[in-house]
Amino acid sequence: QVRPVESGGGLVQAGGSLRLSCAASGRTSRSDAMGWFRQAPGKEREIVAAIASSGGHTYYTTHVEGRFTISRDNAKNTSTLQMNGLKPEDTAVYYCATARTVALLTLNRVDYWGQGTQVTVSS
Q1: Which residues pair with 70 in a beta bridge?
Q2: Can you spell out the DSSP letters for 26-85?
Q3: Residue 1: which pLDDT band, with cuts at 50, 70 and 90?
Q4: Separation of alpha carbons 29 and 71, rounded Å
Q5: Contact 39, 46 (CB under 8 A)
């Protein structure tokens, strides 16, 4: 395994919940930051959330803050994105990403990208 691998995408009704999971590659250290990006049709890719290696420092875009929660399990080298109160505008391909720090992720300086998983929210 070289790239992070996402899972958990799918179709959900507006107001519903979905949980995305990311399994990091063997080249990603448990001391690295992990994050989630998304790209909607016709729009630029944007960072959604990120979490430091300790789990104590997180970042959220204002579009999802209060609805989404990022977490990680360093023993398993995985991260999760719990998405609640989903809206149609959350529809996008969601990508897991890793970098040395949260700051680097916010600057789009990513070491490894996942392949993406589709999230579709119906109204």
Answers
A1: 81
A2: TTS-TTSEEEEEEE-TTS--EEEEEE-TTSS-EEE-TTTBTTEEEEEETTTTEEEEEE-S
A3: low
A4: 16
A5: yes
d(C-alpha 4, C-alpha 15), whole Å: 28
Token pair 């990006």 is found at: 37
Per-residue pLDDT reduced to its tens digit, 74-115: 888 899 999 999 999 999 999 999 999 999 999 999 999 999
Cα-based torsion angle of the residue sequence 91, 93, 98, 101 in order, rounded to the nearest 10 degrees: -30
Residues near 101 by Cβ (< 8 Å), separated by ≥ 6? 33, 52
Q: Residue for token digits 């040395």?
A: 100
